[in-house]
């Protein structure tokens, strides 16, 4: 009988200890969950809201795009005023919302696809080293034609001029392309007034402007920025980006 009593006592103690242990587990889990919920959203402070009352700058993208020409435009237009105010919506657009792979190997997720792209004030068309796929992509060409009907400005950089030529939207207007690409561009699209790319870095004709691309993409972006804001804001952005330092490269 004593043995049975001892065994019963051991069983009861074990059960009570198990119950106490089980109750403590949810408490620990709840504490961990609460801690997780209180962690700050590290992305939130970098998100710039889309404001329908602001001009919208659209950056066209596709696989193989030269990312520097996309970044140059976003560098310029995403900067706030001297008072810290957002003055533009800057968005990336591609055929679909799937990530695109740049020439340099960086994956970028577009903000919008051709189907849900909002109304644009300006469209920037960058380039790739091989434009064959883009020029022969009817969806890209049709998108450019469509946006030409609503935008106030269309800008091409480097070989993006080939998409301008293919779309036909700038026939009769001056345009410049990458250094060494002008002769072929004129041959392919005789209705364009192709400028001498060995002498001309940037050209503007009506709503259309273009540059040699790469770092010259900052020239086309800053030119349009000044037209849409002021010379003072252009100077502020240049100082913000330290671009004047490039004028004294050896210092």
Describe the structure.
With 251 residues, this protein is α/β, with parallel strands linked by helices. The protein has a single domain (54-248), classed as Rossmann fold (3-Layer(aba) Sandwich), CATH 3.40.50. The protein contains eight helices and eleven strands. The protein has helices at residues 2-37, 67-77, 132-135, 138-148, 161-167, 182-188, 217-228, 231-240; strands spanning 56-60, 89-94, 100-101, 107-108, 112-113, 122-125, 153-157, 174-175, 193-194, 202-205, 208-211. The strands form three sheets. Strands 5-2-1-6-7-11-10 form a seven-stranded mixed sheet, sandwiched between helices. A two-stranded antiparallel sheet has the order 3-4. It has a two-stranded parallel sheet with strand order 8-9. Helix 2 (67-77) links the parallel strand 1 (56-60) and strand 2 (89-94). The radius of gyration is 28 Å and the shape is globular. The N and C termini lie far apart (98 Å).
Could you outline the blueprint of secondary structure elements for this entry?
Blueprint: H1 2-37, E1 56-60, H2 67-77, E2 89-94, E3 100-101, E4 107-108, E5 112-113, E6 122-125, H3 132-135, H4 138-148, E7 153-157, H5 161-167, E8 174-175, H6 182-188, E9 193-194, E10 202-205, E11 208-211, H7 217-228, H8 231-240
Parallel strand pairs: 1-2, 1-6, 2-5, 6-7, 7-11, 8-9
Antiparallel strand pairs: 3-4, 10-11
């Amino acid at each position: 009988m004593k043995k049975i009593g001892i065994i019963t006592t051991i069983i009861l103690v074990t059960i009570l200890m198990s119950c106490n242990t089980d109750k403590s587990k949810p408490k620990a889990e709840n504490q961990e969950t609460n801690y997780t919920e209180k962690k700050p959203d590290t992305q939130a402070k970098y998100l710039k809201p889309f404001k329908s009352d602001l001009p919208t700058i659209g950056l066209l993208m596709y696989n193989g795009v030269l990312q520097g020409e996309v970044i140059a435009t976003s560098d310029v237009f995403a900067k706030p005023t001297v008072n810290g105010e957002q003055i533009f919506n800057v968005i990336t657009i591609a055929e679909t919302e799937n990530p695109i792979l740049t020439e340099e190997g960086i994956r970028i997720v577009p903000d919008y696809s051709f189907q849900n792209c909002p109304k644009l004030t300006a469209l920037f068309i960058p380039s790739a080293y091989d434009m064959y796929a883009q020029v022969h992509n009817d969806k890209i060409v049709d998108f450019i034609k469509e946006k030409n009907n609503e935008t106030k400005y269309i800008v091409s950089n480097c070989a993006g001029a080939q998409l301008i030529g293919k779309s036909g939207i700038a026939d009769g207007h001056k345009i410049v392309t990458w250094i060494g690409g002008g002769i072929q561009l004129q041959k392919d699209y005789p209705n364009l007034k192709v400028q001498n790319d060995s002498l001309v870095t940037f050209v503007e004709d009506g709503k259309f402007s273009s540059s040699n691309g790469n770092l010259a993409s900052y020239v086309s972006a800053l030119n349009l920025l000044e037209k849409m804001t002021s010379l003072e804001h252009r100077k502020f952005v240049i100082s913000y980006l330290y671009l004047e330092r490039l004028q004294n490269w050896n210092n």
